[in-house]
Amino acid sequence: xxxxxxxxxxxxxxxxxPIQAVTVGQGAFEKALTELVLVTPLHLRASRSxxxxxxxxxxxxxxxxxxxxxxxxxxxxxxxxISLLEDVMGLSDWDKFGVALALSLDPLKESISxxxxxxxxxxxxxxxxxxxxxxxxxLAANPEPAFTKAAAVISALxxxxxxxxxxxxxxxxxxxxxxxxDGATTWKELDASGQRFAARVGPSIARVxxxxxxxxxxxxxxxxxxxxAARVAPLPNFPGGAAGxxxxxxxxxxxxxxRAVSVSGGVITLALPSTAVAMAAKxxxxxxxxxxxxxxxxSGLKRARGPAGPGKQWxxxxxxxxxxxxxxxPQSLHNTDNVIALDESVHQQISRYYSSKDPFTTGVQTxxxxxxxxxxxxxxxxxxxxxxxRYGVAP
Length: 395
Hints:
Blueprint lengths: L1 E3 L6 E2 L13 H13 L24 H5 L25 H12 L1 H11 L5 H19 L5 E3 H14 L1 H19 L4 H15 L1 H15 L6 H9 L8 H8 L11 E5 L2 E5 L26 H8 L6 E5 L5 H7 L10 E5 H11 L4 H4 L5 H5 L4 H14 L5
Parallel strand pairs: 1-5
Antiparallel strand pairs: 1-2, 3-4, 4-5, 6-7
Helix pairs in contact: 1-4, 1-9, 3-5, 3-7, 3-8, 5-9, 6-7, 6-9, 6-11, 7-8
C-alpha cells in the first residue's frame, strides 16, 4: 500500500498480515443502518405559507414489499416489482451490470427494508444506496480502478473494515461481474451472475459495502471531519483508532481528507495530506544518509532483506518486545537503523545477558530485559549500543 502525500516519494506501508475482514451480523447491520438513515435531515417545505404539511409513510403489510419488491420474474408484471424484458439485449453493458449488482443484494433486501421503513421516504433512501453501490462498483470494475471524492471515502472505509487483501478480492469480484454481465443476453443470465457475485462476496462484506456507501451518500460528506467521524464511530465492530490505522496507515479521524484511492498491479495508492497519515505508517527518525527503510513486522523486514548472512543472525538494538511494539510502534523497531547482522555466537551471548539479572543495572530484582522495558526509546538504544561495544561489536 502506498500513501501519497504529495511531499516527496510515497510512503510504502505494509499492513499487518494476515488481517481478517471484520464481521457484521444481520442484527448489527439493521441497527446501524437504521441509525444512519434516521438521523439524515430531510428538509420539508410547505406548499403554501403558514400551514402545516403532513409527511408520513404507511406501515401497512404491503408497504415495505411494494418499495423493495426487486425485479419481476420474466413475463410477470405487478406493482411491487420492477419489470425487465426477458431479452436484455436492449440494455447497455453498464445497465446490465447495475441490474446484476442489484439482484446480488437480494439477501439483504429484507434487512434494508426493515432499516428504512420508519423513514419519510424509504424509496428515496433505497435509491440512494443502490445508486451509490452501482457507482462505486462500476468504478471498481475498471481494469485499474481509481476512486475520488465520496467513492474514495467509501474505499477507505472498506479498507479499514476488510483489510487490503479482501478489498482487492472485492475489486476482482466486481471486475468478474462486469465481464459476466457484458455477455448476458437473458434475465436469467443476469440473475445468475448477480448470485455468483453475492456468493463470492458473502453477506458480511455486502453489509459493510452497504454501510460504507450509506455513510458517504446520506449526508456523510457534508459538515467536515467531525460529522463524518460521528457517523463512522457507531458502525458495528468498527476497527477505529490504532486498529483501523494499522490496517490502512491512515488516521481514522481524517478519513474525509482521503482525496483518491487507486489500484494498479496489486498496489493500493491513497492520495491524502501528510497530516492524515497515521503514526503507524510514518517511517521512524533515521540517522543514516539515505534514510532508514522500515517495515511493519520483523517477518516483513526478513522477506525484504533476506538472511543475515552465513553464521549471522538479525539483532534488534532496541528489542522487539511486545511492550516496545505497543509503545514505539513496529516501524520504530523493524528498520535498517535498529536491526543489524551479528555473528550467531555474539547474538546468543547478548540474548542470554538480557535474560539474566545484573546487580549493577537491576538490583537483582528483575532481568535486564524487564528493567530495560521501562526506559525511553533513546535510553534503550544507548544501552543497546553500549552492550554491542562490550561484546566487541563496533557501533
